[in-house]
Amino acid sequence: MAEILSETDRALIGALRGNGRASVTELAHGLGLSRTTVKTRLDALVDSGKIRRFTIETDTDVEGGVRAITMVELQGSMSRGVIRTLSRLPEVSAIHSTNGAWDLVVEIRTDSLAAFDLVLRAIRDVPGVVNSESSILLSHVGG
Hints:
- The chain has helices at residues 7-18, 24-31, 35-47, 79-87, 113-124, and strands at residues 66-74, 92-97, 104-110, 129-136.
- It is of the alpha+beta class.
- The protein has two domains: 7-47, Orthogonal Bundle (Arc Repressor Mutant, subunit A); 66-136, Lrp/AsnC effector binding domain/regulation of amino acid metabolism (RAM) domain (Alpha-Beta Plaits, 2-Layer Sandwich).
- The protein has a four-stranded antiparallel sheet.
- Helix 2 (24-31) crosses helix 3 (35-47).
- The longest helix has 13 residues, at 35-47.
C-alpha cells in the first residue's frame, strides 16, 4: 500500500506542479514554511522516490498520469469555503466558476487512477459539495 503523504508534502508537491523551477526560498515563502523545512521535505520526497524527476509541461500530449475535469454542485452559500478547501489539494490544478447545472469546474492532475480516486473522495467529502461528475481526459484532438 502506498505511503500517505503529509499535508506539508502534498502542499510542496502542489507548489512544484505550479512552478517546478521555484527555488527553495520561493517555495518556503509561498507555503509559509521555513527554508530548512522545505529543503528537508524536498530531499526526503526525492530520496523516497515520491518525486522522481523535475520536468516541464508543454501544450503537447504527455504520456502517463491522469488528467480530469470534475464538475461540482455546491450547497447554497458554501462556495468560498469549498473553493478554499479545493485550492489546498495539490492535485487540483485549476478551479473555474461556471453557469448551468454545475457551480464549479475543477481540473485535476494525478500520477495514477488510485491517486485520482483519492482526490475524488476528498472532493466529495468537502462540506458544501452536493454532487460531482468527472470526465478523464484521454487524448488531445485539436486546438
